[in-house]
């Protein structure tokens, strides 16, 4: 794998892309449209409506990646069905995606900079795994509170 320089900051856009993918994968987006319309119909304060409109805009926000990161994001999306998941007594836990498969695909495509792409994939995997497990834990906690 490629070396990471001390003090080098991770690529923020790749992390944002991974988190977006995780939320989409587990359908973790909130639609505030109905609430906004109801608040308008009830003549609620404009500040409250504006707050919900801002939250909706944030939910709908896209992310941008640098042109040199497009290959990594595309490869990450190809791995979307190749995650290792531990189904234990407490529910599911995402362990990580199949980076070995990514390496084979990159080798097959004769990618010149495999180490750099794999390093970026590992960064995305860590961000997505954290978000996926956070969503699952929140859902388990919500389910326990209902019981």
**Largest sheet, order of strands side by side?**
1-2
Number of helices: 6
Number-wise, the strands total: 2
Overall shape: it is: flat
Order of helices and strands: HHHHEEHH
Category by helix and strand content? mainly alpha
Question: What's the main sheet like?
Answer: 2 strands, antiparallel
Tell me roughly what share of residues is in helical segments: 55-70%
What does this structure look like?
- The protein is mainly alpha-helical and 147 residues long.
- It has 6 helices and 2 strands.
- It has helices spanning 12-25, 33-41, 46-60, 70-78, 99-108, 114-146; strands at residues 83-88, 91-97.
- It has a two-stranded antiparallel sheet with strand order 1-2.
- Strand 1 (83-88) and strand 2 form a beta hairpin.
- Helix 2 packs antiparallel against helix 3.
Summary of the model, kept short:
The protein is mainly alpha-helical and 147 residues long. It has helices at 12-25, 33-41, 46-60, 70-78, 99-108, 114-146, and strands at residues 83-88, 91-97. The protein has a two-stranded antiparallel ribbon.
SSE topology sketch:
Blueprint lengths: L11 H14 L7 H9 L4 H15 L9 H9 L4 E6 L2 E7 L1 H10 L5 H33 L1
Antiparallel strand pairs: 1-2
Helix pairs in contact: 1-4, 1-6, 2-3, 4-6, 5-6
Key phrases:
6 helices; 9% strand; 147 residues; mainly alpha; 61% helix; 2 strands
């Amino acid at each position: 794998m490629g070396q990471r320089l001390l003090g080098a900051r991770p690529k923020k856009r790749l992390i944002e892309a991974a988190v977006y993918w995780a939320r989409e994968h587990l359908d973790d987006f909130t639609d505030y449209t109905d609430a906004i319309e109801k608040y308008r119909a009830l003549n609620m304060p404009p500040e409250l409506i504006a707050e919900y409109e801002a939250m909706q805009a944030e939910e709908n926000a896209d992310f941008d990646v640098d042109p040199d990161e497009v290959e990594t994001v595309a490869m990450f999306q190809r791995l979307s069905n190749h995650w290792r998941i531990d189904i234990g007594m407490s529910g599911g836990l995402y362990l990580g995606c199949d980076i070995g498969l990514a390496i084979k695909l990159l080798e097959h495509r004769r990618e010149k900079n495999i180490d750099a792409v794999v390093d970026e994939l590992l960064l995305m995997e860590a961000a997505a795994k954290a978000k996926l497990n956070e969503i699952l834990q929140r859902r388990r906690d919500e389910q326990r509170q209902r019981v």
